[in-house]
């Protein structure tokens, strides 16, 4: 009889499984550092052995490659290592001429510049190409949230975005949602205060937050929630304007709410006239506990709705009403031909290239 897990008397003991030593994987950045060190040593040996054939300035190549792929923790030591190799290779030069001295000066200045950029990147904690890929990924996510979801037959929607000066980041953005694939389409066009990198970084944060709120809240709660979010950030230049369209794709009924944003415009196919909808409401991030007025209506067959930012209608020395008239006149001309690509053509032809511009067009066929 056995007790517990004790083996039966006389039975051979069970062999214990052999424990294999765990494999230790060398971190990827360490592998890159070792390869660069070997490459720099080979290049330095070539400069040292054949100073007349291999130029001293060739030692700048490992530093440039290291600035692209090495982490901020390893890059400073690698640059110092390369500069030591420069000094050693200098001892083999037949004659220290002004040209050789200039080459050494260029190498040390390049190393100093790379060190400065490395110290700045240490705040982010990733190498140069990794940081750039992170920013590109964030930019693509912003653009992805502005993509129009698949719409039922009889509806067409298009968005277009252009940044000031052609930079990849903009303070204007568009977020869309069709909750659970239902009959309601939610659209928000947002203009963050400021220009350049400051507006672009705030737009990165806001687009993610507003994109999550847009499809998760009832239409009447979206702008108040966005206002509360912006107030919590305590940004020095922390306000934004926005316009929110909630559209029923089954009936064409819509609700519009605005937070200090330029008015929306609806083209009535029956009369050929443009109706300007300007619901009242303050900009986001300025006042707590504010209410946003609702404007309701319906898009009939053939009607179109245009939402846009102030970069398309505002300019120095011109009233915004004249800018809206110009935008709607150009839209009327384009809509007579074909509704396809109207948003892109409007953004390219109307407005100031020195300001961010965003436009969204919804058309019921």
Overview of the molecule:
The protein has 365 residues and is α+β, with helices and mostly antiparallel strands. The chain has two domains: 99 residues; 228 residues, PPM-type phosphatase domain (Phosphatase 2c, domain 1, 4-Layer Sandwich). 42% of the residues lie in helices and 18% in strands. The strands form two sheets. The protein has a five-stranded antiparallel beta sheet with strand order 1-10-9-6-7, with helices on one face. The chain has a five-stranded antiparallel beta sheet with strand order 2-3-4-5-8. Helix 3 packs antiparallel against helix 4. The longest helix has 24 residues. 34% of the residues are buried. The mean pLDDT is 83.
CATH domain fold name of the largest domain: Phosphatase 2c, domain 1
The strand line-up of the biggest sheet is 1-10-9-6-7
Rough outline: elongated
- State the domain count: 2
Largest sheet: 5 strands, antiparallel
How many DSSP H or I helices?
9
What's the level 1 CATH class of the largest domain? Alpha Beta
Mean pLDDT score: 83
**Distance between the ends:** 85 Å
Q: Write the element-wise H/E pattern from the N-terminal end onward.
A: HHHHHEEEHHEEEEEEHHE
């Amino acid at each position: 009889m056995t007790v517990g897990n004790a083996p039966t008397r006389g039975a051979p003991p069970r062999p214990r499984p052999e424990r294999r030593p765990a494999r230790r994987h060398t971190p990827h950045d360490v592998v890159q550092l070792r390869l660069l060190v070997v490459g720099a040593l080979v290049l330095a040996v070539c400069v040292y052995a054949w100073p007349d054939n291999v130029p001293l300035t060739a030692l700048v190549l490992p530093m440039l490659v290291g600035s692209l792929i090495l982490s901020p923790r390893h890059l400073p030591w690698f640059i110092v290592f390369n500069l030591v190799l420069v000094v050693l290779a200098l001892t083999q030069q037949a004659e220290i001429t002004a040209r050789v001295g200039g080459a050494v000066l260029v190498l040390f200045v390049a190393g100093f510049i790379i060190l400065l950029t490395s110290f700045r990147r240490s705040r982010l904690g990733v190498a140069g190409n990794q940081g750039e890929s992170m920013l590109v990924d964030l930019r693509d996510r912003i653009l992805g949230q502005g993509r129009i979801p698949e719409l039922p037959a009889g509806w067409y929607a298009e968005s277009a975005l252009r940044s000031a000066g052609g930079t990849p980041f903009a303070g204007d953005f568009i977020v869309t949602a069709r909750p659970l694939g239902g009959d309601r389409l939610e659209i928000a066009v947002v203009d963050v205060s400021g220009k350049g990198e400051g507006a672009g970084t705030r737009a990165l944060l806001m687009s993610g937050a507003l994109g999550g709120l847009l499809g998760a809240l009832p239409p009447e709660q979206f702008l108040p929630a966005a206002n509360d979010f912006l107030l919590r950030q305590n940004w020095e230049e922390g306000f934004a304007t926005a316009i929110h369209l909630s559209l029923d794709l089954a009936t064409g009924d819509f609700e519009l709410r605005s937070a200090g944003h330029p008015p929306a415009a609806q083209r009535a196919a029956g009369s050929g006239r443009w109706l300007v909808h300007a619901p009242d409401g303050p900009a986001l991030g300025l006042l707590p506990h504010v209410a946003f007025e609702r404007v309701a209506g319906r898009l009939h067959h053939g009607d179109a709705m245009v939402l846009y930012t102030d970069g398309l209608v505002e300019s120095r020395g011109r009233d915004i009403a004249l800018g809206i008239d110009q935008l709607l006149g150009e839209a009327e001309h384009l809509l007579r031909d074909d509704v396809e690509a109207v948003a892109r053509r409007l953004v390219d032809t109307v407005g100031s290239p020195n300001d961010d511009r965003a436009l969204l067009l919804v058309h019921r066929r």
